[in-house]
Each structure stands twice: as structure tokens, then as C-alpha cells.
Design a protein that fits this description.
Radius of gyration: 27 Å
Shape: globular
Number of domains: 3
Distance between the termini: 87 Å
CATH topology of the largest domain: Lysozyme
Number of strands: 6
Helix content: 40-55%
Structural class: mainly alpha
Order of helices and strands: HEEEEHHHHHHHHEHHE
CATH class of the largest domain: Mainly Alpha
Number of helices: 11
Length: about 300
């Protein structure tokens, strides 16, 4: 079959174009931009690399929890922290929103922790417990601090059909502080106190006795409690050094504490919708700032009172 000049030139052009595209793909694969605390730098890649959009992050050489050192020289301790760090680094949207919410709530929680003499690292517990959301667990633990009904009543929170103070982030923080202080009196280790928040004081005490150990890091535990302190450590590390782990969050995007005014209520309110309207707001905002109100009414017994937050 004869090939005319135009067909020959067309085939030749396609060969040249294919060669250029192949060269361009290879050359663009050989370098990649990565972000560090110092800025942007180039990292060489092997030409056969599949360009997976992920990198492994360094585990910190040293870490502490509540002033207590984390023994990262122990291989399994190092690996367990590595795992939780990598997981949280790649839960991109979840971790971004967690940092945004933390800006609104952690300063308020820090003040409560300081008042009770609790180390500031415990402010990270509600981040891993609930993502700073008023969620309910499969075990019916409630709120930012995930408090069970029995535990909440023991910690002097009001829990009824109309009022559930476990949903109040700051009152729940006060209740959690009572637990943490009691646990520290028992164990004398803040790390074990944190683990007991997940497993319970009795469960951790039995594990320590049965295994004849004194350190959380030397215990063989159920998977959830075994991961628990490392999840706290990971979110602490990312929250304190976000850029190191690729989280570039504009300060203007962080959520702020909202200005509120408070009204003392000493009489029952039959209709909270009408009450909100009378206060110059609406039911949605009333519930936003008072999630502990569980019904559309509020019964106030003689001699009692409630403090309701409203937009300032």
C-alpha cells in the first residue's frame, strides 16, 4: 500500500507529540513540592513512583502528657503514636473543623481546668471524645465530654427529661474536672488518669494489679483504651503544630467565642419558642446556646433557678 506525503507527515507528527507528552509526564514526576515549618521545598521522586497523594510524617523525638514523659524509645509506643498521628493527619476535613471549633471552646475550658488544678493537656480529651460536638455514643454517653447518665448524676449534673447538663460544654467540663481530680488522688499519674477516663477507674486498677505494672505504657489493654492516650497525644501535636503536618488554616477562618448575655429564670416557662421571641431572638439560637434544654418548655421548681444564654 502506498503512503502519500501528507499521511506520512501526520504519523510523524503524532510520534513527536507522543514523545513530548511522555517526556513531560516523566519530568513533572521527578520533583514535588512539600510544606515544612520553614516554607516550601522540593523533594525528588523516583520516576516509577505512582504519585500517591500522601507522605509519612516524623514522630516527635520527645513528647509529654501533663508533664509526664512519653517513653518513645519503646518500639511499640513509638509505633502507636505514629499510627494515630498519621490517621489524624489524613482525616483532613475532620481535623480542620476540630481546630476551628477548638479556638472557640478551648480557652473557656482551659480556665476551668486551671481553676481545678488540672493540667492543661486535658483540654484535648473532649476533642477525641466528641470532636467538640454534642453527640451521643452507642453506649449513651453524652456531650463534649461523653458522660454517662450514672456518672453525670454522681458528678452533680442535672439530668431529667427537660434538662440535661451533660449537653452544656462548660458545666460538663466542671464535672469532668471532679472525676479527674478523684482519679489522680487514686493513681498519682495523669497519664493513667486519662486512660481511666476511657476504661473507668476500676478497669484500669484491675489491669495494673493483674499485670503487676505501674505505667500505662506497659499495660496490655483492650484496643480502645490502648489507643486512647495516643489519640490525645496525636491531636495535641497537630493542634499545637498544624503547619508541621500540612494544616494551613487562616486565623480568620477559626471559630470565635460568641458574645452572650445571661438571664436568670426563676419561674417555669411553658413555651420556649415564645420566650425566645420575647427576648428578641428565636428558638434556633436559644437551642444553639442552651443545648442542655431538651424540651420546648422548662419547669422551674420552687427555690430553683436556671441561667439561660442568649445572643448579646
Amino acid at each position: 500500500m502506498k503512503m502519500n506525503l501528507s499521511n506520512f507527515l501526520s504519523i510523524g507528527s503524532l510520534i513527536i507529540l507522543f514523545g513530548y507528552i511522555t517526556y513531560n509526564e516523566v519530568s513533572t514526576r521527578t520533583t514535588e513540592h512539600a510544606i515544612s515549618d520553614e516554607g516550601v521545598y522540593e523533594v525528588p521522586f523516583d520516576e516509577s513512583d505512582q504519585r500517591l497523594p500522601a507522605v509519612s510524617f516524623d514522630v516527635p523525638a520527645e513528647m509529654t502528657f501533663a508533664g509526664e514523659p512519653v517513653p518513645l524509645s519503646i518500639p511499640d509506643v513509638h509505633e502507636r503514636l505514629d499510627k494515630e498521628l498519621q490517621i489524624n493527619c489524613y482525616l483532613h476535613s475532620n481535623t480542620i473543623f476540630l481546630i476551628k471549633r477548638a479556638n472557640r471552646w478551648l480557652p473557656q475550658m482551659q480556665a476551668i481546668l486551671e481553676k481545678h488544678g488540672i493540667p492543661q493537656d486535658f483540654k484535648y480529651l473532649p476533642l477525641i471524645e466528641s470532636n467538640l460536638l454534642n453527640v451521643v455514643s452507642p453506649r449513651d454517653a453524652v456531650g463534649y465530654w461523653q458522660i454517662l447518665k450514672t456518672s453525670g448524676k454522681e458528678l452533680n449534673l442535672e439530668i431529667t427529661d427537660e434538662v440535661d447538663e451533660r449537653y452544656d460544654p462548660l458545666k460538663a467540663t466542671e464535672a469532668a474536672c471532679k472525676y479527674l481530680k478523684k482519679a489522680y488522688q487514686k493513681f498519682g499519674s495523669w497519664t493513667i488518669v486519662a486512660a481511666s477516663y476511657n476504661r473507668g477507674m476500676g478497669g484500669i486498677e484491675r489491669a495494673l494489679e493483674d499485670q503487676q505494672e505501674k505505667s500505662y505504657y506497659d499495660l496490655y489493654l483492650n484496643d480502645e483504651t490502648s489507643r486512647y492516650v495516643f489519640r490525645i497525644l496525636a491531636i495535641k501535636e497537630i493542634a499545637e503544630h498544624p503547619l508541621r503536618y500540612g494544616f494551613k488554616i487562616d486565623p480568620a477562618h477559626l471559630y470565635q467565642e460568641e458574645p452572650l448575655k445571661y438571664i436568670e429564670v426563676t419561674e417555669s416557662i411553658k413555651d420556649l419558642v415564645s420566650f425566645a421571641k420575647a427576648q428578641g431572638t428565636n428558638y434556633k439560637l436559644l437551642k444553639r446556646h442552651n443545648p442542655w434544654l431538651r424540651e420546648d418548655r422548662l419547669t422551674v421548681k420552687r427555690g430553683e433557678h436556671y441561667r439561660i444564654a442568649l445572643p448579646a
